[in-house]
Structure formats: structure tokens, C-alpha cells
Amino acid sequence: MNEIDLAFAPALEQAQLIRRRQVSPLELVQVYLERIQCLNPQLGSYFTVTADQALADAKAKTEKLATNGELPPFFGVPISIKDLNCVAGVPCTFGNPTLLNNIPDFDDGVVTKIKQAGFIILGKTAASELGSFPYTEPTGFPPARNPWNLEYTPGGSSGGAAAAVAAGLCPIAQGSDGGGSIRGPAACCGLVGIKPARGRVTHAPVGDRLSGIATNGPIARTVADAAALLDVMSGYVTGDPYWLPDPEPSFLTASKERIGRLRVGYTTNVPPIGEADTSCKQGVLQTVKLLEELGHVVEEKCPDFSGLVEPFQIVWQTGVAASGLPAEVLQPMNRFLLARTVSAGQYLQAVYQMQMVSRLIVAFFHNVDVLVMPVYLHSPIRIGEWAHLSPEETFQNIIKWVAPCPPFNATGQPAIALPVGFDERGLPIGVQLVGKPAAEATLISLAAQLEAAKPWIQHRPAFATAKAQN
């Protein structure tokens, strides 16, 4: 296997290659560090590359490999961590350059679980400032770019994570999603991204600042990889405000199980925001056709999201105030959101309203197993496309773009983004499957069925293969 094929191999396959002694953790890390050195200056997918720590960890794991002891599931496999999550001893900037010297002395709970699974951390991936935006262009950092076309965004706020996986700068990535921040980048970059159900993944050792709308989750090239990383990330930690029992069987097992006949709803419209553009609409319709061919019962139907827009905005934008950063160090859009911060009473009223509407949305799933929707309502925007607009205009554009995602952050339901093709510019198109509460296993099984019927892992960005060969 040449180095490019190795770099684009699924994480589960890499774990097996290591177990069979066909590649060492050190060799694998060196492949990725060389690719990062070559491609990241143009791609902007990593804020921080922890080369010395990764090499030291890889050497130690390579030596341990010779002892024939029991190994964790992803022993020696590289991974990236989004720069909204803490890794002890590594800067955590939250996409703000004033925090370049913010070096935590603890690991976030998901990072602890990732390390326990045997992964080697390559670095911290680019995120929009405070995770606020569906593009990744924070002041003071190079913009993260889409490896399928460098003039376009990879999405946000997990834009760096998705760009890195799509370009073969890591085999798998941790991301987070408070309004589409895993699903959007996955769709923009032709990847699989899972927003888990509320309570599936811990926020330890810190708390939840946004009333349950945000969660950590996996970004990967295959459904099985994403499912296996979700297995790693899942689980209660003492004191979590929300929790779910561990899945039985595992999510990885679900990716291999045959799925029965499902009742599937679909829509290309998000009331009251509007209809998806031609490319995104076509992605949904192609998926619906394939689901019908696979024997599922499909019907066009959609929940009513109309009462959710305003209360969700209030809850979501409060994250800027919760950061504690002063207005003068923030980007204009976050200053605008900070100025919109409401009183504590108004916040709690918004949470109440959001929860009431969420009950109605979840009730829709009494007669539907899975809902198929666009991820975003139109294809990726160009880097800097909205830079000339006022914050108010940009905010309205964001709402109209990401509209299919936030409802399920509000309800806490699981959703998975899948690649389904390319638009006329060669940019990936994705769809999302939304499931019943805590029903990630159903989504994963159905996604694996779609993946098997229409494989996509063979697709690689020309930028990430041609450049590496030079």
C-alpha cells in the first residue's frame, strides 16, 4: 500500500494493519505529519500540530506493539481534536487569537475516552470563533478551505476537522455540533458526520452551557468508522446532566446489521425558512429513490418547525456571552450576537418555548422511523463570500443556509450526514437522516445500507493526491 492509499484508508482498517504488524504507529504518524506539512499551509485545517507529542506517543506505542499485550480498539491510529475541546498541554484557542496562550491542564472527557481507545492526537483542527459560524474563517488564522475546491468553505464550525479528513490529513476526527457544526462540514466535504442523541456523549469535566443543544461527535469517511468512534466517545461520566445507557449492541455492530423495512419521511423544504436549492434538493430525491429501491416505505412529510426559529436563536447566541470574552476581542459577527444577549428570564422563556416546540417535532416521529432532509439549503459558499455584508445580513444568510440542522439540536434527536454526489462545481452534496430519540443504531444501519448500495469512499480530492505526489 502506497502512502496516499494508507493516508486515505479507513481508521478501522489502519487499526487492523497495526495489529497485523503491517504498519507501525510511528510509520502512520510520520505519513500524516508529512502530509500536514505539505498541504496544511494551503488548506488551513489545523490551528496547532502537535508533532513532537504525536511522534513520542507513536514511538511508545510502536515499542508496546512488540510486547503482544492486549490492545485498545484504535491502538496507534491518528486522530485530530477540534480546537473547541481541551487537550492537556496543548493551546485551546476557541478560534480567537487572544487565547493562543490558553493551555489547559486537563483533557475534556471525550479526549480522555479517545486516548483510552489508543488514538494518537495529531493536533487541534480549525474552528470558527467560539464555534458560532457555519464557515471557518476566524480573524488571526488562515481560513479553513474545502479540499474539493480551495475557493470554497469546508463549512463550520468543525470546518478544519472535515477538511483534514477529506484531504487525508487524518483518517478520522472529533467534532462538535450545536446547530449543524458536524453535519454541515461533513456534507461540504463529502464525509460521514454523526450528531449523537442528547446524553450520548459527555461534556465532562465541564458543564453544558447551552441547555442541551450541543454535543460532540465523529467525522469520518465511512459509516463504520463513524460508528466505531461514536462507541469510543459514548458513555456517562459522573455528574453529567443528561445521559443514555450504553448501546446494546455496539454502534459498530449496528453498521454491520441488516436493517428491516422502515417508514421514511422526506422533505426538501424547511418551513418557515424555505426550499433547498436544486443540487441539495436533488440529493434528497436521489436518496429517496434509492431507499424505495431498497424496500423502505417512503412518504413526503415534514414536522412543523415554525415556532422554533426565534427561541433557538436566543439560546444559541447566548453562547457568545457565556464565553466570557469581552466584545473588543471578538469578530464583528460575535460582537453583534453578544449585543443581542437577553436577560436570564428571557433566556429561560426561550428554553421553555424551544422545549415545547421540540415535543411537537418528536411526536412527528411516532409514525416515522427516519426523516431524510438536506443538510444545508444550498451548496457551500466561497471563502469570504459574506465578508462585505453587515452582521445582521450575515446572520440572516446563516439562518437561511443551515435551517435543516438546528431543529434536531433543539430536540436532542440523533442525525447523520451522508455524501450522495457532487454539484456542477465538483463540490460534495450531502443529505441528513434524522432518527427517533436515542436511535443512532437505526440511522447507522440505514446509512450503512445506503453506503453499500452506492459506495463513495473511492472519491478523493485532486488537491490532496496530486500535491502529495509532487
Plain-language structure description:
With 470 residues, this protein is of the alpha+beta class. It has one domain: Amidase signature (AS) enzymes, CATH 3.90.1300.10. The chain has 17 helices and 13 strands. The protein has helices at residues 3-7, 11-19, 25-43, 51-65, 109-116, 159-166, 183-189, 223-233, 251-254, 278-293, 309-322, 332-339, 344-364, 391-402, 406-411, 440-453, 462-469; strands at residues 46-49, 78-82, 120-125, 172-177, 192-195, 215-220, 263-266, 269-270, 274-275, 297-300, 370-374, 415-422, 428-435. The protein has an eight-stranded mixed β-sheet with strand order 4-6-5-12-13-11-7-10, sandwiched between helices. A three-stranded mixed β-sheet has the order 1-3-2. It is globular. The chain starts with a helix and ends with a helix. The mean pLDDT is 97.
